[in-house]
Design goal:
single chain, about 210 residues, 12 helices, about 0% strand, Ankyrin_rpt, Ankyrin_rpt-contain_sf
């Protein structure tokens, strides 16, 4: 029989081999995502790769794919039955919020169809779309039930964020959906106040109609 020291040594060696293999696989996985190697990512999934495991920066694969503009990889990941479409990264952001930022309406709509949440406590996809002034994305999110007056973590509304984009059309679309430009955040500032502060009289006029 093996003595306890030898058993411990063998067990430690086996663990190190396993961890090294995992590290190599993990590194290859994230590199494949970065380089948009959809077939390699699909192969890794077929071999048991966890599609929801966060990387060292706190990003899940589906969101890292968006950051890397690896949309072929994104398309592979989103079709996986084990994917968590509402997974959060280290900053409590979701895949739909990332798509709202880049303005990919088709993929965002597909994500919602598959079960992604349009509304959530705090910052929501609509805030993100409004902050960039992505009008088509704003329209799509509203059409899918996004709350036009949803308060962000510090109370700012989507129309408040739309003012930061300085896009009149974004403000108009939100106003038409019932956004309240007089609602104040925790600093006591409204979208109208912000528009005046940013010297955007056109936006002030739109919100005072």
């Amino acid at each position: 029989m093996l003595n306890s020291k030898l058993k411990s040594s063998l067990l430690l060696g086996a663990m190190l081999v396993t961890l090294t293999a995992f590290a190599n696989t993990s590194g290859a996985w994230w590199n494949d995502i970065k380089n948009n190697r959809a077939s390699s990512v699909k192969e890794a999934i077929n071999k048991g790769q966890d599609v929801n495991a966060l990387n060292q920066a706190g990003q899940p694969p589906i969101m890292q794919a968006i950051r890397d503009k690896s949309m072929a990889v994104f398309d592979v990941l989103v079709r996986d039955p084990n994917i968590n479409l509402n997974i959060e990264n280290i900053n409590h952001e979701t895949p739909l919020m990332y798509l709202a930022i880049i303005g990919d309406v088709r993929r965002a709509e597909g994500l919602i169809f598959r079960g992604a949440d349009v509304n959530r406590l705090g910052w929501a996809p609509l805030h993100y779309a409004a902050s960039i002034g992505h009008v088509d994305m704003i329209k799509m999110l509203l059409a899918n039930g996004a709350f036009p007056n949803a308060p962000a973590a510090e109370g700012s509304s989507p129309v408040y964020m739309a003012v930061t984009s300085k896009n009149p059309e974004a403000v108009k679309v939100l106003m038409a959906a019932g956004a309240d430009p007089k609602a104040v955040n925790q600093l006591g500032k409204s979208a109208i106040d912000l528009a005046r502060e940013l010297k955007q009289p056109g936006l002030v006029e739109i919100m005072l109609r």
